[in-house]
Write a structure and sequence with these properties.
alpha+beta; single chain; 21 helices; ten-stranded mixed sheet
Length: 805
């Protein structure tokens, strides 16, 4: 064996396809390892946490006489099945398209230890097994990085082992049959793939490749009498711990591990609600969706669930895309909790709520996304993510899963979140698509319904002062949703036959006077497409106003918006209609199918079919909802996994893009599987499963209106309709010094505590005050000084306010 491999550090590291058709893990605290499958091979393997990818892929190359070279992930037709519906123990059959060989594999993780097991059978369909060389290729990418890894050939218990390390984590590849040749090399220069391509075999066996983009290669000693091998990839904190895990798994045997693995999954499934329906293409979609949710959970942080075990367009991305989608998004996490609840697993939903309690920031909000240990990753502030945990708390309480004693543990979290919402809402720094700031119908719907839910929970504690303040704030914001977000370009509205529509998001101005005639920035677009008129940009997000109980399904504003959405954002595909996120979206492949690289063209999202189905069910159109469920399920990949997006253009076979099939974005998307489970439950119940009842009762049945308009330093009103009370709200105690006649007469009004950490004063207006201007300032009691700035609010007729958008 030669010493160090040449060519350090190798070519730039890349991840692999995000189009998974299988994911799995043992439901065991002793096995902190997860795997993904695509194109008939193992892709990313995660250890010791579900947010830490440690491999790129692991597959086989078959070589033979006369320069024969065949790579199973590129040159085979792959068929992947599960041992039972929804149990992620996989059988893979890869048949060479040239008809020369077949590779059969079974893949699981060992429930007893951190090890992935793969039983492999090689069959020569032409000629004899001895006519071929079968070489395993493993690309380590330890702890989310392909660079600065090291690989080497060593021993454990007198048998050869292929080792790799990076960022203080180790893996070891062991076989239960002999290796004919072994090598470590640098990708693109001295790796096994290149040697096989050039020589048909591992011609130069290098012992080490350090500090680069490395790969391991090992030729298996298959013979006519030995056509089966079991390969184990063990993980550990040291190379010997990793080798010991792999070796012990081989000694116990594949069958024992598989029996334990399947039994764990069967025991978990038996506790689920029976929401199974007719299988789609041999796939029980409900069991797949529940398995997806369970497979994305952290083993060592109860309640933590990552968004996806994939990196969108991973084959085009390197170490600079550190997180991929294997991070925790609070919004996705609450949606996942809803999926668990719909499936009858309240225990997981409570664990999620407890995790959210532990990672809440001192301000009361949650990070945009985070690692499992709570460390924030992206720094954005999204107000819906601050509100969703409140809705989850209330839902668990309403369904009888949180009694008074259990609820008490979450009340500090709830109070802090509610305070953050009223002091920083209703506008958001980023919408749910993590891009633009402003007044978003979706965010507003979540905020208002969360404030009402928080009020009910505070009432249970006997704190009516704080509860009433939250309800009054919710009423005030709910009253202005149309003022803030209902617009429409005149010619477009005339063509569609509508009075207007909810916009995707209305930008924040210096006052509350949001101008729908202004422009909104479209992210992920080239400069010539980066700005569009606010009134031209639509989104299905407005359906949240119905989903969260603030507007009736037949509300004229909603009906008009549905017409506008279907006119502009609907894509009719072979499986049925899907919808785009919003007008001008750039998050998706380029027109020619090239991967998203910061710009692109948005593609339809199956998730949005689930949201539309919930709207149709709320509107009493069950048949339409059932149809959209079928559309959602037909949008899945071959293994029943839901993609983030599907391709909507002509087929591009060389890029694996086909009309109506998964694109190169994330797959699976846990959020989509959660929506699927909730839709199954909603159709079973005959009502939207996760619709909060407070808004329905308050705004649809009782038509509650608000007498308030709220001024805050981050929401400075420029006008107020006659007959409304002007509420000034601050985060510190103050005396309000104000006048309605340009300081001819002055009133001093002390502020009172809201019970939520803020202070407010109400300034009533009379009929004589129309067309006058309120001027006011503050004397800060705790600091003993004046604000030294005068603020003004103009009193207008109510009809005048309602037309200002």
């Amino acid at each position: 064996m030669l010493d160090a491999a040449p060519g350090a550090p190798g070519i730039d590291a890349r991840w692999t396809s995000s189009a998974k058709n299988g994911i799995g893990t043992a439901l065991s605290k002793h096995s902190r390892v997860w795997f993904t499958l695509s194109h008939g091979v193992l892709n990313e393997i995660y250890y010791p946490r579900v947010d830490s990818a440690c491999t790129r892929d692991f597959g086989f190359v078959v070589t033979g006489k006369d320069g024969y070279f065949s790579e199973e992930k590129r040159d085979c037709d792959a068929e992947t099945t599960t041992v039972a519906p929804g149990i992620p123990a996989f059988s893979i059959t890869n048949t060479a398209r040239d008809g020369l060989y077949r590779i059969e594999k079974q893949v699981i993780t060992d429930p007893a230890r951190a090890c992935v097991l793969q039983r492999v059978r090689f069959a020569a369909l032409k000629g004899d097994v001895r006519d071929y060389r079968v070489t395993a290729l493993l690309a380590p990418h330890l702890v989310n990085a392909g660079q600065l890894n090291s690989a080497w050939i060593g021993e454990f218990e007198d048998k050869p082992v292929l080792f790799a390390t990076g960022r203080s984590r180790y893996l070891a590849l062991v076989s239960d049959i002999p290796w004919r040749a072994l090598s470590a090399g640098f990708v693109g220069v001295s790796d096994g793939w290149r040697q096989l391509k050039q020589h048909g075999r591992i011609a130069e066996q290098y012992q080490r490749a350090d500090d680069g983009n490395v790969a391991l290669a090992g030729e298996l000693a298959f013979t006519s009498d030995c056509t089966e091998a079991t390969l184990a990839i063990g993980f550990g904190q040291t190379e010997f711990e990793a080798a010991a895990a792999a070796t012990a798994s081989l000694k116990d045997g594949f069958d024992k591990a598989q029996q334990h693995y399947v039994a764990n999954w069967q025991a978990w499934q038996e506790k689920l609600a029976p929401l199974d329906r007719e299988e789609q293409n041999g796939v029980n979609t409900y069991r797949v969706s529940t398995a997806v949710l369970a497979s994305h959970r952290a083993a060592d942080r109860p309640g933590a669930v990552v968004a996806s075990l994939s990196i969108p367009w991973g084959f085009s991305k390197g170490d600079d895309d550190l997180g991929g989608y294997h991070l925790v998004w609070p919004r996705d996490l609450v949606e996942t909790a809803g999926g668990f609840l719909a499936a009858g697993n309240a225990e997981e939903a409570i664990a999620i709520l407890d995790y959210l309690r532990l990672v809440q920031q001192p301000s009361g909000r949650w990070p945009q996304n985070l690692w499992l240990d709570g460390k924030p990753y992206w720094p954005g502030i999204q107000m819906d993510e601050c509100a969703f945990p409140i809705l989850l708390t209330d839902m668990l309480r309403r369904l009888g899963h949180l009694d008074a004693k259990a609820l008490k543990r979450f009340m500090p979290m709830l109070r802090s979140a509610a305070n953050y919402i009223i002091t920083n809402g209703p506008a958001t720094a980023e919408d749910r698509w993590e891009e633009d700031a402003g007044y978003s119908p979706f965010t507003l719907a979540v905020e208002v319904s969360a404030l009402l839910a928080a009020a009910d929970l505070l009432s249970l504690e006997g704190d009516e002062v704080a509860a009433n303040h939250l309800r009054e704030t919710a009423d005030c914001w709910n009253d202005q949703i149309e003022k803030w977000t209902f617009a429409g370009e005149k010619d477009f509205c005339a063509a569609v036959g509508i009075s207007g529509h909810y916009v995707r998001i209305a930008p924040i101005g210096v006052t509350d006077e949001v101008s729908a005639s202004g422009d909104i920035e479209i992210r992920n677009q080239t400069p010539d497409r980066a700005l569009l008129p606010t009134a031209d940009v639509l989104s299905p997000d407005a359906l949240a106003l119905v989903r969260f109980g603030l507007r009736a399904p037949d509300d004229p504003h909603i009906v008009d918006t549905i017409k506008a959405i279907d006119h502009s954002l609907r894509a009719d595909l072979p499986q049925g209609p899907l919808w785009y996120r919003y007008t001008g979206d750039g998050y998706g492949e380029h027109e020619d199918g090239a991967p998203f690289d910061g710009t692109g063209q948005g593609r339809p999202w199956p998730l949005l079919a689930g949201e539309r189905a919930h709207y149709e069910l709320a509107a009493g159109r069950r048949e339409a909802a059932e149809g959209l469920l079928s559309t959602l399920e037909r949008s899945a990949g071959s293994g029943g996994l839901f993609p983030e997006q599907v391709w909507d253009g002509p087929d591009v076979p060389e890029k694996e893009l086909f009309l109506g099939r998964p694109s190169g974005s994330a797959m699976p998307l846990v959020w989509a599987h959660s929506e699927h489970i909730k839709l199954l439950r909603s159709l079973t119940d005959g009502a939207v499963f996760d619709m909060p009842p407070q808004g329905v009762e308050r705004y649809i049945k009782n038509r509650t209106r608000s007498d308030l308009r709220i001024w805050r330093f981050n929401n400075r009103l420029s006008s107020i309709p006659l007959g409304k009370t002007l509420r000034l709200e601050t985060e510190a105690d103050a005396l309000v010094h104000w006048s309605i006649d340009d300081w001819a007469t002055v009133t001093d009004t002390p502020m009172v505590p809201s019970g939520l950490g803020t202070y407010y004063a109400d300034l009533p207006l009379s009929h004589e005050d129309e067309d006058k201007t309120i001027v006011f300032t503050f004397y800060w009691q705790d600091r003993g000084h004046w604000e030294n700035t005068n603020f003004t609010v103009h009193v207008v007729a109510e009809s005048e306010e309602s037309t200002r958008i």
